[in-house]
Amino acid sequence: xxxxxxxxxxxxxxxxxxxxxxxxxxxxxxxxxxxxxxxxxxxxxxxxxxxxxxxxxxxxxxxxxxxxxxxxxxxxxxxxxxxxxxxxxxxxxxxxxxxxxxxxxxxxxxxxxxxxxxxxxxxxxxxxxxxxxxxxxxxxxxxxxxxxxxxxxxxxxxxxxxxxxxxxxxxxxxxxxxxxxxxxxxxxxxxxxxxxxxxxxxxxxxxxxxxxxxxxxxxxxxxxxxxxxxxxxxxxxxxxxxxxxxxxxxxxxxxxxxxxxxxxxxxxxxxxxxxxxxxxxxxxxxxxxxxxxxxxxxxxxxxxxxxxxxxxxxxxxxxxxxxxxxxxxxxxxxxxxxxxxxxxxxxxxxxxxxxxxxxxxxxxxxxxxxxxxxxxxxxx
Length: 380
What we know:
The protein is α/β, with parallel strands linked by helices. It has 16 helices and 13 strands. It has a 5-stranded parallel β-sheet, covered by helices on one side. A 4-stranded parallel β-sheet has the order 2-1-3-4, sandwiched between helices. It has a 4-stranded parallel β-sheet with strand order 6-5-7-8, with helices on both faces. The two termini are 35 Å apart.
């Protein structure tokens, strides 16, 4: 049976991806579900919960409401809260129960917007997909609704960072170091979607020359900005020496207008990286061009990903039973520590915590590999 994990954990769900992407932007996010699920989000998926004020609510869907249906109560509660807190926008995200009873969340959002005059979005998340899909839909909606004017391009080569959430970047300084790594190479960062910047800053996104998609969560916004303003996008996350390759691709994309996904030639790879697609791909490339490691790596994308980005030895494996056969022959496996029980005993395992997979368990041990892979090289 697909999507069944007997041993390993599962990735953060799509509804939490919506919350994470919108957390810092001044909006109000409502999870339509039974009481208790908000604690799952703020305990395991949101490291900013105690340090950053954000309006994340739960509808408290009751058993009787699930059976009989009562969208009016949901709408009334949202409108009441919006009138009290005055958010910049309202997002309503679904969970498994609304999916089963057929709740039309887009229609709910439309009614809420008419009654409040506040921009509102309805997301048909259902808990059956990973955070990548939810975060991508949320950032796409922000781009579509709020980035509407063509601003003058910056004088210096510049980018928007798309897909920056703590589910992939944790709170260890990686998100901030993305900016410093690019600025050291002469590239200005206009906006970061969506850690460290406000909604007003994101509205300046059209002034950038290129979009850098640093996780798959940013692909929806990248496509909107490409279609509306012609901004090309480069796919890849800055890691070690691979950042130089990304910087050259950003320059090339700005000049040619092409969408690019830089790759390092990787053959006969004995190192396997498992994780979110863009991050795993970029780390495999960074390992393969690192002057200290002297070894090639392949990657396995365990979340939603596009096959066009795969090299010959790379794979997409969303389920535990698909993943197991792909690990044979690996000498080294780099993945979240919760993957270790299914890895062959013959392979050396290097635990690299991923907030979107193991939550807060290994948060204090997640390294920042943006500037250097020295931490990883010591363990290989």
